[in-house]
Write a structure and sequence with these properties.
about 210 residues; mainly alpha; 2 domains; about 75% helix
């Protein structure tokens, strides 16, 4: 009798877990699809909030907080009128929530972008602070995952946009972009996991033709 009750409890728990997991996956897929359509600052804020609500509800999933941060990071590149410092601090706070669940290279990439966006407000005066923070995030990420395509893309992009007299330039960035594309093409993408970067790399490589 006790064995039957135990089996019944396990079965109910399994069904409940599967239903919760299915709800989580569907919510994530619905919001991930919006990345292809959101174009406005308000849209990215709404998207970030939606991912954060998923994270708050799930509590053990790092991806919702990651995508909440990535939404604001994307907004940071597209809207020059926002307060870059305030936005970056929100991004880093979301990354901290994700890191508390699973510290990994993908999160480091978003921290790197947030710090870079702050540094670009005043590169000359912020290189030693926000620039150093961006570099530290990059180094930590590459230590965790040396072949992470997002990190390689960010490195190549930084070199691409740095003038030649300061050690950058398109010629120096080209082999880095080509390597990044190879890493992206070889990447084994898991459901819901980050896989962005290929469109950006291909667009940059197209400027060499």
């Amino acid at each position: 009798m006790k064995k039957s009750i135990l089996m019944f409890v396990i079965a109910i728990f399994s069904i409940s877990t599967m239903a919760q997991s299915d709800k989580y996956v569907k919510a994530m897929e619905a919001n991930l699809a919006k990345f292809d359509t959101v174009k406005t600052t308000a849209g990215f804020i709404d998207l970030s909030n939606a991912f954060q609500r998923i994270g708050d509800a799930e509590k053990t999933q790092w991806l919702p907080y990651y995508y909440a941060a990535l939404s604001l990071s994307t907004m940071g590149w597209t809207d020059n009128g926002i307060d870059k410092d305030a936005n970056a601090e929100k991004i880093k706070a979301l990354c901290a929530k994700a890191e508390a669940i699973d510290y990994n290279a993908e999160i480091c990439a978003v921290v790197n972008m947030a710090a870079t966006q702050q540094m670009l407000v005043d590169p000359q005066n912020r290189w030693g602070t926000n620039g150093a923070e961006a570099t530290a995030a990059m180094q930590k990420g590459l230590k965790l995952d040396p072949d992470n395509p997002r990190l390689h893309f960010l490195q190549a992009s930084a070199v691409y946009n740095t003038p030649e007299q300061f050690g950058g330039g398109k010629d120096k960035a080209r082999p880095m972009l080509e390597k990044t594309l190879e890493l992206l093409n070889a990447e084994q993408v898991k459901p819901l996991y980050p896989h962005w970067g290929k469109k950006q790399v291909e667009a940059m490589l197209a400027t060499y033709k």
